[in-house]
Amino acid sequence: MADYATQSLEEIRKAVVADGVIDAQEAAALRKRLFADGIIDRAEADFLFAVNDVVSGGQNDPAWKTLFVEALTAHVLGDASSPNVVDQAESEYLVEKIGADGKVDDAEIALLVNICAQAQEAPPAFHDYVLDCLRRSILEDGVIDDAEVQTIRRVIYGSGGSGGQRVDRKEADFLFDLNDATSGKPNSSAWKPLFVEAVASHLLEDEQSPGRVDDQEADWLIGRIQGDNQIDDNEKSLLSELLARATSLPARVRQLC
């Protein structure tokens, strides 16, 4: 196994990207070097992004993605100035670095999701960015698979979301956007239950009108359901859930059931 203990980060970067792929031995050696002092500093974070930009899309060993996510999460959430929080400067840094090569790859999506799920707090703009990146990634093939359902769950119920562990309006819109785009496709069987559970939670577990759908929520819900000129199976299940659980449901919503 390569020994990077005495080499500079620039020397290591040139060595590991020479063939455009990171194998298991290189990933293990990088892990040993980067975590030697228990801290991932900014220079090491820059190094990780620089390497990933070169090897992105290659047949890298899975250990590289694991290291990339773990180390950069530690850099952002393990710092002394804002532990377990994504502060404004960290948010701007992540967005800048991820967007530097004009694409968001699987490792970067996994990083964003992991940070969003673990952070106790993050700027609303950062969460918006995560939702947008995740939406684009999921809709590349127009189908929501099992792994993507789990990813969506981690993001919308993560404490780093704009609504904390509650499902807020932006997250509910995100869910409807995905549902509209993938309606009728062979999605994971876990997608419908998540969609129904999360949107119902948004409507019935808010502070303004807990347990009921108020007039403003009804207007939003009708607009979202009728926005694509169809009521699909997932939306019918959502309406049935609201009919069964809500203590008050406006007549115009009941008419859709």
Description of the structure:
This protein is an all-alpha fold. The chain has a domain at 7-122. The protein has 13 helices and no strands.
How are the elements arranged and paired?
Blueprint: H1 9-16, H2 24-34, H3 42-55, H4 62-77, H5 88-98, H6 106-118, H7 124-138, H8 146-156, H9 169-182, H10 191-204, H11 215-226, H12 233-245, H13 251-254
Query: What is the count of β-strands?
Result: 0
Q: What does the largest sheet look like?
A: none
Q: Structural class of the helix and strand makeup?
A: mainly alpha
Low-confidence stretches: none
Helix % is: 55-70%
- Give the overall pLDDT as a whole number: 94
Q: What is the molecular shape?
A: elongated
Put simply, the count of helices is 13
Distance between the termini: 63 Å
- Beta-strand portion reads under 5%
Order of helices and strands: HHHHHHHHHHHHH
Radius of gyration: 21 Å
Please give a handful of descriptors for the protein shown:
single chain, 257 residues, mainly alpha
